[in-house]
User: What shape does this take?
Amino acid sequence: MIMQLIEQIREELEKKDKTREKGIIISREIVRDCRVAIQNIHKMELETANSIIKNARNNMQKMVEILKDQPDVYYSGFVEHAQQEFTECNVIYALVCGKSIPQPKELNVEYVAYLNGLGDVGGEIKRHILDLIRHDMLEEGERYLSVMEELYTGLMLFDYPDAITHGLRAKTDKLRMLLESSRSELTSALRQQKLENAIKSLENNLSSIK
Assistant: This one.
């Protein structure tokens, strides 16, 4: 009788382990797709990025379906990581496309994963700001800086223990540093632009005098 009970438990754990392995494989595909999509977004290859994001969304649904009867596996960590990456990818895509930032329910992700995904967006926004600076699109850069400031201000409100927010405080601190460095880069570029405009204006005035 004991061996029958042991065998029953072993079968259940074997099933759980196989389900977990399937979930991990899909989560890795989601993370990989999201990172590739972000690269495409920065290259302004938005149609390609959108196609990859759709594939990641399908995999998100597949992962949730596979794990729906295994809540302990679902909340073991890898699902949340995939949801964070998926959130980050969708948010930066929406920002670059000039769309509204998607809500957690639209993405079908947990709140804490969503917040941590927002915390990660700061790095991608800074990267985009630097691209805009290189293309002399400083006004657009200021718009993204405002978005980063709003993100930081919002995430600061979630002053809860890490047991609840899963590392959000550290990401918020990192976002603050990214915000300050982005502001510094943009301020320097704006000053340089003003100086160049002043020099050009002076040269034009001198030319007209001659």
